[in-house]
Amino acid sequence: MNSKRPSPTRLSAHLAVCAGASVSLYTYDERSPILSLSTGDVTVTIALSPHDLDPTALRFARDLADAVARFAENCQHFTAHSDTDGDETSSLTIPPVSRAA
Fold it and tell me: Which of 42, 19, 24 is nearest to 34 (CA)?
């Protein structure tokens, strides 16, 4: 008999950014924060239970913040290129991104 724990099921979700897309952060005094990404019919929630809050979880959160900052910078780069391709002045203002400490 095999006593190994089964591997968790892997699930992949594609979040296509659309007009209804949103990112929400919920913070609480008594528990860890919850991050929610929603678009269309798909919502991805990132939450950690209190016993999972360790240096590895903090590293994951910082890596996620860094990747999101780089994602935003790259999107801004492509938006800037598409704005200048048509010789039109864009009224789109993109706020600067901040990197996780």
Answer: 24
Select from 63, 66, 71, 74 the least CA-distant residue to 15: 71
Q: What is the pLDDT of residues 12-39, one digit of tens each?
A: 877 888 888 999 999 999 888 999 999 9
Q: What residues does 25 pair with on adjacent strands? A: 35
Sheet holding 42-47, edge to edge: 22-26, 34-39, 42-47
pTM of this prediction? 0.65
Domain ranges of the chain: 15-53, 59-90
Residue 44: count other Cβ atoms within 10 Å of its Cβ.
Answer: 12
